[in-house]
């Protein structure tokens, strides 16, 4: 079972920068996961197959550059 319908994935884009999204499934049985935007480093949460596309509720993705800073 896929987390999201393939047709929906084809039209979804990052709500912040309109960039492409990558799928990361975290729990295939519950249809949970994340939609990752590498352009602006946000991860949108998907619960029960429903994506939350609000940028203010997205998780910030840590990049290798973030690890070297601080």
Helicity range: 10-25%
Q: Overall pLDDT, averaged?
A: 88
Number of strands: 5
Helix count equals: 2
**Cα radius of gyration in angstroms:** 12 Å
Give the low-pLDDT segments: none
Please give the oligomerization state of what you see.
single chain
SSE order, one letter for each helix or strand: HEEEEEH
What is the CATH top level name? Mainly Beta
Instruction: Provide the β-strand percentage band.
Output: 25-35%
What structural class do you assign from the helix and strand content?
A: alpha+beta
Assign the CATH architecture.
Single Sheet
Compute the separation of the termini in Å. 41 Å
Q: How many individual domains?
A: 1
Keywords:
N-terminal domain of TfIIb, 31% strand, 70 residues, alpha+beta, five-stranded antiparallel sheet, globular
Question: What is the secondary structure topology, with strand pairs?
Answer:
Blueprint: H1 6-11, E1 22-27, E2 32-37, E3 42-47, E4 50-51, E5 59-60, H2 64-68
Antiparallel strand pairs: 1-2, 2-3, 3-4, 3-5
């Amino acid at each position: 079972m896929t987390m999201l319908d393939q047709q929906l994935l084809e039209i979804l884009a990052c709500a912040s920068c309109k960039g492409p999204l990558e799928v990361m499934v975290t729990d295939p049985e519950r249809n949970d996961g994340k939609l990752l935007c590498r352009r602006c480093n946000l991860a949108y949460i998907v619960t029960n197959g429903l994506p939350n596309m609000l940028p203010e509720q997205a998780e910030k993705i840590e990049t290798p550059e973030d690890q070297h800073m601080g």
